[in-house]
Structure formats: structure tokens, C-alpha cells
Amino acid sequence: MKIALAHDSFTQLGGAERVVEALHEIFPDAPVFTLVFDPKYRLKYKDWDIRTSALQTLYLGMGKLQYLFPLIPWGVDNLDFSGFDLVISSSSGWAKNIRVPKNCIHINYCHTPTRFLWGEPEYINQEVPLPLRPLVRAVLGKMRKWDYRGARRVTKFIANSREVQERINKYYGCDSEIIYPFVDTVFWHSMEEKNDYFLIAGRLQAHKKNSLIVEIFNELGLPLHVVGTGRQEGYLKSIAKPNVRFLGQVTDDQLRAEYSSALGYIYPQLEDFGLMPLEAAACGTASMAYGRGGALETIIPGRTGEFFDDYDKETIKRRILSWNVQKYAAGDLRAQAEKFTKEKFKSAILNCIKPYLSV
Question: Is residue 359 scored above 60 in pLDDT?
């Protein structure tokens, strides 16, 4: 069979890109179709056959995919999959909406249905520049219809968690199989003695609830390390007291050290899948997380972390003040991370698509 891969865009590196990289390891000869590709990643993917849409030239001129929002359906619809028998797409946005030939099988690994179309009304304010928001909102209705129709063309959905499986069913009316993403347990491992701080890490955006955690640590006066950058970075720095330390964008080696020496990793957001608590667990650190979404599938309360059920400050403060590092055994933390290895992910993907490979 002639196989292709598809991905929303290569404009940043994160968990979705790691999934595409694992799919490419399974099918190294498959070309990868994408809406746009940022040249700063050219060296990283120098051996890949990456095929961009007609929006690539505009993206290079404008620098942000958000500016091209109204043209995204056109760009996706014009990706040419002629001659392919199987396309595996990885998407939290648009790649699931590709058009494939009549007899071509399309399997979509869904990180989530498109957030600002279906699940998070405030997502536009966080992701779209202010001058473009009126235009974006004006076309949302048409975009939802386009997104729904595209989803209904998918041959098979793979969801990355129960949370996402429920969303796929709710918004698209489609069934799906769950295959969890993976954590690199070879790289992520404990390497430091425990220090006296708690840690938050990731993109610094409003829906991640980092401002709440900074406010809490302001009031407690306890050390907090903040790893990452984002649109809320300036605001967080403006409200933070000296006990809150901002480390900015760090290397994976530095993040591993931060995970390893933290008393606990705090994960206050509602996420599709709780990947970072698994990285922390692999490094010997338990997590304190909001008790909804993907974190429920990666944290074992009492063994690899704890949950808080709402965003009440006093409740979270009590969790922090009563935190006991000795409660969480290194063996339990490591064993939980080992449930989500890349090898298991790749094996599950192959088992999922095996019936289609013989069609």
C-alpha cells in the first residue's frame, strides 16, 4: 500500500509533533503533508519528505498561521493525496478534514476536536490576535460545518484519551479507539536530589490557570519555579512576588533537572491528556492536578499524585501545605510512566491499522 502521513502544521514543537515523529518511525518512507512548515525546523526534519499546502508562501510572508485563518479550509482541501491507499493524520485542528481519494482509507489520531470551534469559547481570545477576532468569530459557524463534514469523512478515529473520545462522540457523532500518547522513559529519569520548590511548566496562557497558582504561592510565600513562555508571561511576572522564579524557555535537559528536584509538579489546567505529569513521574516527582480531563488517566491518587476538584484557593493551599514527598514511592512513579512508552504506542498503532493494511 502507498501510505502518507498528515499533520496540522509545523509551527511549534510539542506532544502532537512527537506523535507524528513516532508515526514517521513506523512509516519512514511516507511523505508528510501539512498546512505550513516553519523553516526553523528544517534541520530537525531534514530527512523527511514534507509537502506543504498552497498557504506556505503566505505563511512565510506573514509569519503567523492565525493570520490565514479564513483560508485554512481552502488550504486543507487542496492538499493532494492522489495515488495513496492509506493516510494517517494527526490532528488537534485541521488535518482530519483532508480529502482523500474514493478508495483511500483515512485514519485520524485525534488529540482533540478543534478547540475554539467546539470546546473552549475563550480560546480565540488567547490564540487569535485582537484585530482578527471579529473576522474569526464571523466565520466560526461556517467553520464548524466544514469541520463536522470533514470529521464524518474519516474512516476511523483514534482518540488520545477517554476525555477526547467523549468529545469526538459529542461533536462529531463518531466512535473511536483509544491509544494513549507516550512519554520517553529513556530520557525522562530522576537525576537530582529534591530541592525546596514546586514547579509549573508549559505554555503560559490564560486557560492553563497558571495565574491562580502564582497568586496562591504569592500568598503562601513558598518557592515556585515557572518554566515556559507564552502570551501570559508578562502578566504573570507583573503579579509575582520574589518567591516565584521564572526560568523561561528551557532545554529538555534543564526541564528534566527541574522535574527531578521539585517537591511536586502542579498541573492546574484541563487537558486532553496528562503528558507532563508522566514526565514528572518518570523523573521521580508526583503531581498535584485539576481532577478533570486527561490527568485522570495518568495520575493515580495517593500513589503518583493528588487531585483538587475545583479552583478554590483555600483547597489548593491546603493540598500544598500538606504535601509529603515521602508519600510517593519512586518505584510507583516510575512504573506509572512505564505504562506509556513509545514502544507500546507504536505497537498499538500497528495493531489498529493492521486490518486496513491487508484490504
Answer: no
The CA distance from 194 to 202, in Å, is: 21
pLDDT of residue 56: 95
Q: What angle do CA 45, 98, 152 make, to 5 degrees?
A: 135
Angle between helix axes 330-338 and 275-282 (nearest 10 degrees) is: 130
- The helix or strand, by DSSP H or E, that contains position 67, with its residue range, turns out to be none
Instruction: Indicate the residue type of 289.
Output: A
User: What was the pLDDT predicted at 15?
Assistant: 83
Q: What is the pLDDT of residues 37-78, one digit of tens each?
A: 999 999 999 999 999 999 999 999 988 887 888 899 999 999
3-class secondary structure, 105: strand
User: What's the DSSP call for residue 94?
Assistant: S
Given a cut of 80, whether residue 232 has pLDDT beyond it is: yes
Judge whether 146 and 97 are in contact, CB under 8 Å.
yes
CB 264 within 8 A of CB 325: yes
Topology at the third CATH level for domain 3-182+342-357: Rossmann fold (3.40.50)
Q: Where are the domains of the chain?
A: 3-182+342-357, 198-338
Task: Give residue 130's pLDDT band: very low, low, confident or very high (50, 70, 90).
Answer: confident
* Whole-number Å distance between alpha carbons of 263 and 245: 15
CATH for 198-338 is 3.40.50.2000
265: part of which helix (H) or strand (E)?
Answer: strand 264-267
Cβ atoms of residues 289 and 307 within 8 Å = yes
Is 279:260 a contact under the CB 8 Å cutoff? Answer: no
d(CA 288, CA 304): 9
